[in-house]
Amino acid sequence: MDLDPMLSLRVLGELTAARDGAPVDLGGRRQRAVLAALVIHRGQVVAADRLADLVWGDRAPANPAGALQAYVSHLRRRLQPEAGARRRGDVIARAGNGYQLRLPPDAVDAWSFERAVDSTPGLSAAESARVLEDALRLWRGPAYAEYASESWVESEVARLDELRAVARERLLEARLHLGDAALLVGDLEALVAEDPLREERWRLLVLALYRAQRQADALAALRRARGLLADELGVDPGPALRELEAEVLAQSPTLDAPRAPLSAPVDGAPIPREPTDLVDRVRETATLRRLVDGLAAGGPGCALIEGPAGIGKTRLLAEAVRLADLAGARVLAARASELERSYGFGVVRQLFEPALRDPDRQDVLLGAAAGGARAVFDGLAGTDSPSHGNFAVLHGLYWLTVNLAGEAPLVLTVDDAQWCDAASLRFLAYLVRRLEGLPVLVVMTVRSGEEGLEESLHGELAHDPFVTVLRPRPLSAEAAGALVSEVLGEGADSFVRACHRMTSGNPLLLRQLLRALEEEGVQPDVSHVDTVRAVGSRAVSSLVMLRLRRMPPAVTAIARAVAVLGEEALLPAIAELAALGEPETAAALDTLTRGEILADWLPLTFVHPLVRDAVYGDLPAADRALLHERAARLLREQAAAPEVVAAHLLLAPRRGSRETVDTLRAAARTAMARGASDSAVVLLRRALDEPVQPDARAQVLIELGLVETLLDGPAGAAHLTEAYELLADPAERARVAMLVVRTHVFASAPGVATQFAVAAEQVLPEGLDDERQGLVALRRMSGYMHRLPPESYRAGPTPEVSGSGDGARMLAATLCYEVLRDGEDRARAIELARFALEDDRLLEVDNGLLWIVAANVLLLADADLGDFWDRALARAHATGGLFSVLSVNLWRGYTQLRHGQLEDAFQSLADGTEQLQMWGASGITATYAAAFTLAVQVEQGDLDGATETLTAARRLPWVGEGGRLLAESAARLFLAQGCPAEALGGLTEDVVRPGIANPAWAGWRGLKAGAMAGLGRMEEAVELAADEVALLRRWGAPTSLGPALRLLGSLRGRSGVTDLREAVEVLTGTTAAVELARAQVALARHPEVADGEAVTLLRAALSTAQACGARGVARDALDELAVRGHRPEDPATGGPVRVSARERRVLDLSAAGLDVNEVAQALFLTPGTVRALLEAASGGPP
């Protein structure tokens, strides 16, 4: 038996399969159930009738054996598509009257998990912990999640759940043996709360509490366990808990953590050698070595070293750098700090500026697609370069990384990432998701428990399956003994234990404790154990300040100056801030270095952020603010960059200084030019705190509001509104009013935007005709989008477009949408839409609202858009507006859906949805994305995926146009699932009465007719479908009329053949490829169509559906061909090869001579994606 080593199955969560890492489509729910049942029986033969009973229960079809055989056949082809018919039996084999699954033990995650758990007895604690951690990572959710309620899987799920519970308990026990007691108490409390009747969990919790020097809490936990067992089960604790209680009371030495050697020999391999200052980190260094080795082989990686302050994260980062140096990789490093969090892309600049110092290299590294990154770096953007938005900068930085990695394997390290500025953190998350195929390793350290970190860094990186998370543990008692010996000399066991317990094995706390004991002349013997307890009870800040106060006053003043100025401060600035001479300052710095307050290297830095925190926190708040004010003044006099001065002004007293406001605004402009919107908001909000004159305040409010519209719509609207009220110039007021309305459309409750636009129009003076047209356009469009009563936004005569200004184009876009809604004058709608989009002017002045509307009108009017979406995407990338980029992707995806380019549509929508998450939107824009994605999945026949999309969309507010579109897509899904009642129930009055007469944009009539027909209400269904056809004849767009004719003809039965023929005729030659195929199938099914004509129609429909990826239509065509006695090749193995538009563009550019990177830059893809597409097309690497 030659089994496929690349095939793997996962059942610890949803049932999925993969071949060589690529997902395998396992078909529908019942077909997957066959595979799940075979996995459960693990190589045993399962009788065919037993399988049929599991799959269908009492709802079996007329011929279950035949259906089962078909399922098995489909599974074989999908699991081994490249194997011959004879070899396909290798995985699912026929045996007697049943089937068996033949896979190696490590091919199924549940089997691997069980083997791993069974292997742990007899392993060392460290090895057991490693094995169990790896095993538990296999779980992605409840076992056999989609079948969990089925009776045939219940016992297996229960068995796996019990095994998982045992594995979690064994893992925590192993970690207890490794000395993690204090850190494990919280985990064990949570584990006990999950299942408080498992005595083993109580035992581990009590042991952890005892080893963490919490004997009273350990005894209290035993009392809780005793009471709970008595109340719930009426029994006393078992022997293990009773024995443990006696040992806790007696403080038995057997309860202490076992002692282990610093490193254990490995059979057949040398003992790992650690640097002298790196102890107890064999596992972590091995992981880092693996990542660096993978980098040397051309593979990407990302490591996040997470843990409490002082645990040794920075030292592990240094080890990663050392390993990278040995491997010949290029290392670019940065360290974040609290003071510099307001520096836009501050960490990114630290990383890349060393590589850009050579002017001859700048054009090479920052050329082509990397050009957007120039804005980040001082002196490289050029004085006449436009400001770049967030997305252009992220895209440019990504390509800068690609260019550097093309020269040598690249390692990017960031220390203290919890203080990383938001713009840099956004780039790092953006980069990590696109590392595939790049020889780039990203290594970051992050202090756990920092406020605000969970949703930013953890949400983007720590939960990414691509990221390796390292959590270094506290030092063992033996490692603590080694450090004691290094500082104080050989120590007595009780002295070492006291040092270890007082610091919980934290390396920084231990070193500070030992340094304090050394300065007091303490000997490491039994008589000084009490001294350890007295000194060690102080926090690190107290220890640092205790030592600092023993130094001369000048030394303390210098330490404070360094803490205020920030690390990397220069000696002259330090001396001036501390009011000392430079020679005295240099001597003080030397004293601080020898005392391990400052690190012994340049630029100046504290030995640890906690030490800096101790010095800085010892300053009274008022003194800190005054020192920051002096620092700002000093740096301004030294011509420091505005953002450097502004970092101190953020912490200085408010004095109503115009100079302070100007500096903060200048720093904000720098941040915006770099695409660091978050930093600009912080700086401008601080500028507002300075009491200044109304004119200056209005300008600050406008600048702040504009930036906030990218990040926080409601805040942006509020600040822009305040600016509008302060302004006196009518033209400027009109400009700001339009900004306010646009922001309200996407950020505020329905009606707010319209009300503001009405009020602004009323006070607009004569002579500002173009501005008035812009406000009218926004007033009317916001009313439509929020589905307000027409009298609130469309009262009075229809406005006329005047001139060719921006406002005129905005009004034309709105009016063409009104014509579309009314559905009467398609030529007029096209004329207005083309004027609105002429010269792409609207793309420059609108943020993705009105030009989208005009483009959609042209689409629904069957007017050729040409290369509009390519131009729009290129402009959005060039300007870098994230909202513009995601808008193009969403509506381009809708266009591709209408054209039957389903794979391209799904990819465009996936890109847009990812960008939507980056932008942070969860309102009306998100409903459009969900509606379009759901519609694509239904067309692709992926009803399970569509159901998941709909479930996720339930969390969104179904309001406005997006809510209507989402309700229509949900109805399509229900109809495809054969649930007409659910479809009809979702088409509520709010959906079917939106004031849109044109079914080309409001398709509820056809959906409702289909649902009524499914419920037997044929007369009503035909009447509604006929109404839809009449309305669409008036509009005259073939791609909309054809589907309506197809539905009407299908509902009319024998009398509908004329409608069906007209549907095929109308759709032939249009862009609606899938709708044409659907109409061809419907006509072929009609009893009056001759067999020869029907087969021709069905073959054409099948070919089109396969080419478009419309699996549902393809299945319908195949079924109808089979009814007529024709059996073409299975679409999974035959038919034309589907090449999406994206694949075609990649192949065309590659054939034209462009290399992988050039193709990726031209199409806004990653090199990994291009390489994968070329490999798939050619069967080998490009």
Automatic annotation (TrEMBL):
Pfam families (UniProt xref): AAA_16, BTAD, Trans_reg_C
Family per similarity comment: Belongs to the AfsR/DnrI/RedD regulatory family.
Name assigned to this protein: AAA family ATPase
Alphabetical list of PANTHER family matching this protein: TRANSCRIPTIONAL REGULATOR REDD, TRANSCRIPTIONAL REGULATOR REDD-RELATED
Gene Ontology molecular function: DNA binding
Biological process according to GO: phosphorelay signal transduction system; regulation of DNA-templated transcription
UniProt-listed InterPro entries: AAA_16, AfsR-DnrI-RedD_regulator, BTAD, OmpR/PhoB-type_DNA-bd, P-loop_NTPase, Sig_transdc_resp-reg_C-effctor, TPR-like_helical_dom_sf, WH-like_DNA-bd_sf
DNA-binding region ranges: 1-103
Ranges of residues in domain OmpR/PhoB-type: 1-103
Keyword DNA-binding listed: yes
Keywords attached to this entry: DNA-binding, Transcription, Transcription regulation
